[in-house]
Amino acid sequence: MSHDVLVGLDVGTTGVKAVAVAHDGRVLASASEEYELSTPQSGWAEQEPEDWWRAAQACLQRLPEGPVGLSGQMHGLVVLDAQDRVLRPAILWNDQRTKAECAEIEARVGLERLIELTGNRALTGFTAPKLLWLRRHEPETYARIRHVLLPKDYVRLRLTGEHAIDVADASGTLLFDVAGRRWSEEVCAALDVPLAWLPPVHESTEIAGAGDQAAAALGVGIVSPGPVSVVLGTSGVVFAALPAYAPDVEARVHVFCHAVPGTWHAMGVMLSAAGSLAWLRRVLGAAYGVLDEEAARWAPGAEGLLFAPYLAGERTPHADPDARGAFTGLSLRHDRGALARATLEGVAYGLRDSLELLRALGVRPEVGRASGGGAASDLWLRIVASVLGLPLERTETEEGSAFGAALLAGVRAGVFRDAADAVARCVHVRDRIEPDPEWSAAYEHGYDRFRLLYPTLRSLEEAT
């Protein structure tokens, strides 16, 4: 196989994206294939693993050959029998059915010990609660399980015949000793999950694989403490490399192994970032560019209009699948541009929640690297930069996790010495957006008001 081209394959929630990358970081070709998301009940989210494989094959056939790296949606549960046959549709990261199982896990392991071991508390998106749900609700399927994989690693199995996982993706299962970078015998025993079901664990550079967030962060140059990654995708992420394992005592941010060997990362995740703007655009029947233009006509703060971006529940900092969104402060003067401005600002405030928690862990960023579909908006980046108090840089490539996966393929193939060498040769900054001092002053007041929104809305929901 030629090493002139490196291939990155990202098994996402809406489809597979693949890129062919030169050794200097130039994207030579790309391909994508979409597939369906199934919601058989309210709050459920499932996909057929065969759809991932078909889409991956179609993408690879349209790209030049080269070493392949894999990234993908985290946390999803793929269960296989002894012959590696899929037993049921995969239960995805955004599935919310496991509230009772999360409570059971925290009771069995103990919340403090669970956070100490895994860096996280039990959340509905993680893999372990899904296994317990299967045991309770589909015992016949559960009895046939012999292998458990995550989405991208099912594609790896079909590509190579190998059962394997990287430490970055394994960290999101809630079955992993994140400090020790190995499966947690203690957690698995407490939950009666056989260790034999779990695949061998490797560093990301050893098997050219990582969960989508770690791969995306590598793709924008986050290999060591310094800059943070700010992702404006469907979900929103603030991601920082850590010098050592350091979980938040309340697990309000996720602490996982990074794709760089021997390092960890912390990230805050909000569930509806660009997803909030997509919802607003759909409801209003307006194009993104039009909403940007109309939002730009409003001054920071939109005359008191605030948006709570909890359309799909929330992870950071509230860990509340039942949280719901809201506009507050509406007046007769407010139009759809004001709604758009408040939405952009509400998401920025949600990202600020994550950044403040990372700062409490000792993260001291001087710059952010912005990516995701929302990063195409200069206005939104100016708002986010001003709310976070950080300049935001965009890189030359906008291929996200697939690009990071290609860099991992290059490290594994020996094209690059290590992850830092891959970043130095392939990640190039395109432009930089500075915070606006006047906007920042307005947004400090706005953020103080925003922080009152969640507890107020929660008390209203509890009263109904």
Global outline:
globular
- The rounded distance between the terminal residues' Cα atoms is 62 Å
Stretches where pLDDT is under 50 for at least 5 consecutive residues are: none
How many strands appear in the DSSP assignment?
22
Strand proportion: 15-25%
CATH class of the domain at 6-222 and 401-408: Alpha Beta
Strands in their spatial order, largest beta sheet: 16-17-15-14-20-21-22
The CATH superfamily of the domain at 6-222 and 401-408 is identified as: ATPase, nucleotide binding domain
Major β-sheet profile: 7 strands, mixed
CATH architecture of the domain at 6-222 and 401-408: 2-Layer Sandwich
CATH topology of the domain at 6-222 and 401-408: Nucleotidyltransferase, domain 5
Q: What portion of residues is helical?
A: 25-40%
The total of helices stands at 17
Rounded to an integer in angstroms, the radius of gyration calculated over CA atoms is: 21 Å
Descriptive keywords:
464 residues; 19% strand; alpha/beta; 17 helices; seven-stranded mixed beta sheet; Nucleotidyltransferase, domain 5
